[in-house]
Design a protein that fits this description.
homohexamer, about 290 residues, mainly alpha, 4 strands
Chain lengths: ~290, ~290, ~290, ~290, ~290, ~290
């Protein structure tokens, strides 16, 4: 069961409302790097987890993330206070700077929500739940979560850069700190599970001898050209990160041939020429 | 510039076509864990990269991934060979097993593409390019890529489990191996960049002293209840993974108060009762 | 701030797991009539509300709805316990009923989430946040909420009809009851605001004398035909529901003329024939 | 069968074209509150209706709504007449106000449609037909329709506020009036069906004694805190709106326990540590 | 203005309802090849057209297409008559054929719409209005329309193949005939505009001497390999279709060099290693 | 197998970066008329093709199109060089022209990708793979491709019009030329297949005598009104384009009657009034 005390996790204040910043903040609410995504991702991972410790960890943080959406939604409303809503305002008509502000605002934040936050990104694109990754494999999920917090913190620092409102900088400073911790948190689980050697390859419960043994530790280089040199990196020679193989490098060579897909089936109603095939149909003459 | 020799990276053959498996394979083509996603993700990351080595690495692998989509598309077509396409086939009407096969097929693989692959997932949902993560921050991108290859390999092992067709198992064995390597490849870049201490917190070019210093290494626990014990894990005590802080644990306490969002603006046309506010409107009487 | 005690709002048990029912339950999680929708809708409405009572009411119920998603996600996992995951299981190959069950399962519930719930509907279509209606007008929002709970309860009764598992019927009996209450709850706010006369037309803060006075209480009937009779209903005669007008009926007559949209602008690069227009271009000769 | 006379339902004229207003008008065409939505919603409801009167009412109004999309599309084209289409226009380069206008225009209205309307919202997001609610239950559908017309009229009044072009104000005055009528129309059907007592709970054909009798008229309050007082409203005490129950208030208490979701199935390929479970795996030690 | 007489354009009857066919028919309603698409496409093209003849032609056919959606929606409802709606029906439990039928039904056609049609495709994916092509260029639009009618007729023939219900075959025979005509209709406009020589290249109002003159009639062949022969077709030699050029063939050669995208900007917060660039950062050492 | 030499197909340079143009260019990357669309469309068509010549032609051009996405992505990055990223830049605060530029930029190009290209359109809407048309019928596909290249070239000419940067004009001049060729290329295949007489009606493998013979060459005119004259065009009289019929014109007359959709099924839980039907329920009284 879930509960609320109605209070903000951290204070939100805006000294100089800027309706353009209200639009940019939307990315942190409904963008693919935003807080709806992490909240829902941790919830669905948690609800799928039978292990009590991991379940608690996931649901506890998922619940915290709701408070982050709330903070950002509050910030949007505060930045929209007093925003221009008419092309005919004297200010808008006479002051190009005001016209630019109106042009930079989100149209939907006025038209659809009456100067409040929406579950959309900074371009007004609604968040789509296909971004909730919950694979049932804890290592894959932890990397998905570390990724979400990494792109999330990158986004938050960019928002921090866009404003110099002291209230907004303070709020973002808090959210950036939480992203720092959450990156750590999910990667710490990887460590608890044994680090690279413990978790790779993901999933490690698949019998690795059933995967192709020639191509599992080789960097396949598809580059061509007279002066191409093999790529040289941590992943082209030496022991693999999981300690189970040796990296190598190879320029791509096709192992297969030109694929023979079936000719069109009559009951799919292709053109007649497709049914006639090579016999008599010039289109079917091989070109090579 | 890009080129093709028309051949498959690895042979694709199907001994016993199964139109249901043709549907499941779609998840590896157009699912969020699929090959379109990784191909496009690496292309967009590569095209945004000025560093030659990383650019080469990304574009080279992106190009390889096109060959994987091609393999899977070929496999779909081969599995659909001879599939039933009529509710009135004698086989379908008289044999419940055939009826079940028809029911388990993708409708669109017949109706829209004439028994071929489509850029959709196993439920026919089209792939949507918002899943292409290319943040401009290489560490965030590498974790995004490791995640994609982790969920991709989990998916491939599940597909491997669903079939016992020798051709399909061989093809998947190859794709699983490539996912093993690609997980390694992107995490090896993290190692090249210094591992946890070198890359965390992401982005590490943001001056860390501008983030809130009280909340950047503390696990905030939102659980309540009489018998709740603090969570205890790698992330609740000891040095942080990046070596820049000390983990701690804390039960959630609101730092803020009930937020004071602005009252409805008249030019947003709320109800009159909303404009009247607390004066005389019983709805506006605080309930706490 | 938000909190959790880790417990279910109401017990969830499944006596006879049915993976097909696991798919149908998805509609109540990620369908447009589902629980993610109501939870997020009430949150966004609440976060936009300055009035304390309405804010509390919305956020309190939004928080309850998270517990409903949790219940349904638990039910999905329990229904998927022991589900077939291979086309090659002996049971699937030999028993058409098992084959039908496999065909009726969600592919993604295995391939993407490892036999757990996802934020998608019963066809695997991800929930899309454009369905979160939060207009800033409380009457519009209350009708949106009553609608959500009405379609939600219709859905829940259909799910109740599909199963005879005692655990599932018990859980759905609870969710149906909550929908009953929530329909009442939002419509009760309409009553508090004065009912039809108090809230209509929505928004009632727009000066009604600025709307066209000829067409605001007339039913416009676009039906044609020799034997067409005027529609006759509560909305075609008598006092309007808001007491501000008198209903009438009228067969549709165009008030305007054929619209004169501008000819194609040269800088939009239409065909040359479009630029030539009526002069010499036979295509431009009016046909009437 | 459907027919057209080629004329506008109501005149559309624009005295001072404003390409920014052309963008805002898109919300009324392809926004979730827009005219495509209501037209298609009423069509699909009507085509699903066997009752002649309700069918006629729905299809007649659906047909009218096509004329509204036509009016708005005409208005968009007229507002885009003469719009700047080059970053290099002298006017744009030298006049910041013109630059602001260009910045505030829809990019796609030029790039994709050549200065005409599109079936997208004011942010260029295409309309998505999942917003067409047609449940098969007439009361649910009538509330959905009243909601659509309420958010539609809120939107139209905001658009009216944004402009002072006499032609646009006249057109919007007409559309606002039609929304007034359509709100009445759908709610009048609720009245014909007996009002709250006649239609609630929706669906009223489900045997109400099969819903949980303890939770169907109680407001569940999830708020916590030392000074929390029970919410007090029309929905917390007194007879329910449908006359079938008595409202009450209750603070949330979990009826269930920590859910026992099944442990990961081996054939879903979780991590090995997940398969080992509590035996020896520290991750599986309960934390509470 | 638009009108309806309430009657079907062509009779719709179903002798043997099949709920699986009800699902397949959805592709012709809400699929990308379906009737919503053509109706809306012709409407938006028509509303953007100032030429009276083309406007009349487009709006007249758009209006006809509404009648086609109506026919298909009626057919869906008739095919769903008596469909099983419970996993516990005796018929479903005991008869694998019935179980297969239930598995092959659309879940949403019961759960969301109560056994009626929806604006979704055969996999339940909602139609999305980005498929409405209305470019403002009549030749581009006519090819878009001919394409829509071509994929539409392919789809209709496949549906015809799937059933042997006499009523459904009769209805589809009519829709297939209309698609035949509509293909002709839009291509006839191309003929009226002068055929290939009259319309190509589209748009023909762009001054063709401003396009690159070396690459506008050459087939660029990106194939590589020892035994590759140049492709040989109507498009590799001889006069171009528009009579303005001569076709030729060329194997792809890069005209450009490795692109020099800008190094990461500090205010985008890349990793520090990205800011250091080639100086001292091994990652920045060119690999070629 | 696919390969890359790392070089641009054609040089890309920007003399005067304009972040607004960076946004507009997105339409050519991720818009429905853009290069991702054509690349993926030709790949999926090619992978479904068994005829060697057509397969080679499709895959060869698909591969070329990747190079076009690369060119455009490079152009986006170059146009974003030095773009303002803060509302607080002195330039932005003091210069309305700079403020307008910031307002006209894509928010996501900074917030999500760090001043690089994304697979989205000019409004930030992600590309969605449902736009990949690959029907299995070559004539339908060729028209789909000609359409894509037509709308693509219209788009490219509009982008050409928006800028006067010499580098951008040169790049677009190349892309416009390629679109010219690709329009020819796909229409040349239609010619190879026999032109209108050879390919129409599509699909021509469906036995045409099974389509309704009364409605396959008649223009159905749904216009009504006292002064309506029959449309007169190439498609209303004379031989049909395929030489198999004679065009005619007819004003629309319903062939069917009011459809009799089934009454609501009790197990769909409509309202009780819907179940009662005409007996005693005034709502069920026919209105005509």
């Amino acid at each position: 069961m879930y509960y609320t005390d109605g209070k903000l996790q951290y204070p939100v204040r805006v000294e100089n409302p800027d309706p353009r910043f209200a639009r940019y903040l939307q990315q942190a609410i409904g963008g693919v790097e935003g807080e709806i995504r992490v909240s829902m991702q941790y919830f669905f991972q948690g609800w799928a987890t039978s292990d009590p410790k991991h379940r608690d960890m996931l649901l506890s943080t998922a619940t915290e993330e709701i408070a982050h959406i709330e903070m950002l939604s509050t910030a949007v409303a505060l930045n929209l206070e007093g925003a221009p809503t008419s092309l005919q305002d004297e200010a808008v008509k006479e002051d190009p700077a005001m016209a630019a502000i109106l042009g930079g605002m989100s149209a939907k934040q006025y038209l659809s929500s009456g100067l409040h936050a929406m579950p959309v990104d900074s371009d007004g694109v609604p968040f789509d739940m296909s971004h909730i990754y919950a694979s049932g494999n804890i290592a894959a999920d932890m990397y998905a979560n570390a990724t979400a917090e990494s792109t999330g913190r990158v986004l938050a620092t960019r928002l921090y850069n866009m404003t110099d409102d002291p209230g907004m900088k303070d709020m973002l400073s808090f959210l950036i700190a939480r992203d720092t911790m959450h990156q750590q948190q999910w990667l710490a689980v990887i460590e608890e599970l044994g680090g690279y050697e413990g978790v790779l390859p993901i999933p490690n419960s698949f019998p690795q001898d059933e995967e192709n043994q020639e191509f599992n530790y080789v960097y396949v280089d598809t580059r061509i050209g007279e002066d191409i040199q093999p790529l040289d990196g941590r992943f082209t020679s030496g022991a693999s990160l999981d300690g189970r193989g040796e990296f190598s490098h190879e320029f791509a060579v096709p192992e297969g041939d030109v694929p023979q897909v079936p000719p069109p089936a009559p009951d799919t109603f292709p053109q007649e020429s497709q049914l006639e095939g090579a016999d008599g149909d010039p289109a079917a003459t091989p070109s090579t």
